[in-house]
Design brief:
The chain is mostly beta strands and 293 residues long. The longest helix is centred in the first third of the chain and has 14 residues. The protein is globular, with a radius of gyration of 20 Å.
Length: 293
C-alpha cells in the first residue's frame, strides 16, 4: 500500500472539489486532446482488432494498457486458447488507434493504440479477452485511464493487479488467486465507482480515495488491507481460524454483523486465534464486517 496520506480527509475533499470545479466534462484531464501512449519495443507489435492465438502458444502473463473504454477478461469452458477483440464506439479507429499486441516469452501485452501521440477524439473502445477455463497464469495486469474493469476467470492466478486512474467500476471474480491489488493511480485523483472482489483469494490490497468497496472471500484469507477515504467498505469473510483487525478512521463507523465474540481493544479487533490479518484505514468510509456462510 502506498505511503499514508498526511491529512486524508482534507486531501480527499480537495480532490472532489477540484474535479467538481471542472464539472467532470473534460473526460478527465482533457483526454480528447493529444494523447500519448509510450511502450518499449513498439516496432514488434502487431495491429489486430480481432485475434486468436495458436493453441500451441502458452500465456503466463496478460498485461493491458487501455485509455478509454471497458476492459473485460473472462474464461470460457469451450475456449482452447486465448483470444481477444475490441469494439469501437464514437468513431471508427484508424490503424494507428487500433489494438496493438505483442506475444513474447509467453507474455501477452495488449495496447490501446500505436505508440506515440494521437488524437483520441470521441473514440471509446471496449476490450474483450477470453481465456480457457482452468488456465494457470502468473499475472493479469490492467492499467486503464477511464472505464470499467471486469475480470471473471476460472483458473489459478498468482496475481491480479488493476490500476484505474480516473473512474469506473472494478469487478474481480477469481476462483483461485494468491494476490489481488486494486488502486486508483499514482495521481491520487478520485476513483468514483464500485469495487467488488470475490472468490478464493488469500491476499487483498485496495488503495482508493472514493469508492464503495466490497470484498467477499469464500476461502481462508491470509491478509487484507484497504485504504478508502470516502464511500464504504464491506467485508464478507469466512470464520476459519479468526482474524486480528486494525480499523483506523476519522468519522467512519464499524457495523459488526460477524459475531458478538469479536473482541475490541481501542481500534484493534480480535476474533478466535487471529490468523488472518486485516488493516482498514478510512476518512469517512464506514466498515461492515460479516461472515461468509
Amino acid at each position: 500500500m502506498k505511503a499514508k496520506r498526511t491529512v486524508k480527509f482534507i486531501i480527499a475533499a480537495l480532490a472532489i472539489a477540484i474535479i467538481s470545479f471542472t464539472f467532470c466534462a473534460c473526460d478527465f484531464l482533457d483526454i480528447e486532446s493529444d494523447t500519448r501512449i509510450i511502450y518499449p519495443s513498439a516496432d514488434l507489435y502487431t495491429v489486430c482488432d480481432r485475434c486468436e492465438l495458436p493453441e500451441t502458444e502458452s500465456v503466463y502473463l496478460i498485461y493491458v494498457e487501455w485509455i478509454r473504454g471497458d476492459v473485460n477478461i473472462v474464461s470460457d469452458e469451450k475456449a482452447t486458447t486465448v483470444s481477444f477483440y475490441e469494439v469501437a464506439e464514437g468513431e471508427e479507429p484508424t490503424e494507428a488507434r487500433t489494438l496493438h499486441y505483442l506475444l513474447q516469452n509467453n507474455d501477452l501485452k495488449l495496447k490501446y493504440a500505436e505508440a506515440g501521440y494521437f488524437k483520441l477524439g470521441n473514440l471509446r473502445k471496449n476490450l474483450y479477452v477470453t481465456v480457457p477455463a482452468g488456465i494457470r497464469i502468473a499475472e493479469i495486469g490492467i492499467n486503464t485511464k477511464h472505464g470499467n474493469v471486469n475480470i471473471d476467470v476460472d483458473g489459478k492466478i498468482f496475481k491480479i493487479d488493476v490500476e484505474n486512474f480516473y473512474g469506473g467500476d472494478i469487478t474481480i471474480n477469481a476462483t483461485d488467486a494468491e494476490k489481488v491489488n486494486v488502486e486508483s493511480g499514482k495521481t491520487d485523483l478520485v476513483l468514483d465507482g464500485q469495487v467488488k472482489i470475490e472468490g478464493q483469494i488469500k491476499n487483498v490490497d485496495v488503495d482508493i480515495i472514493k469508492a464503495n468497496v466490497e470484498v467477499v472471500c469464500s476461502a481462508a484469507l491470509a491478509q487484507l488491507s484497504a485504504d478508502v477515504d470516502l464511500g464504504s467498505v464491506r467485508l464478507n469473510i469466512p470464520e476459519n481460524k479468526g482474524f486480528k483487525m486494525v480499523y483506523k478512521t476519522l468519522f467512519g463507523k464499524l457495523y459488526n454483523a460477524f459475531s458478538s465474540q469479536v473482541r475490541m481493544d481501542g481500534n484493534k479487533y480480535y476474533y478466535l486465534d487471529g490468523k488472518a490479518e486485516i488493516y482498514i484505514e478510512t476518512s469517512t468510509a464506514s466498515l461492515t464486517l460479516s461472515k461468509f456462510e
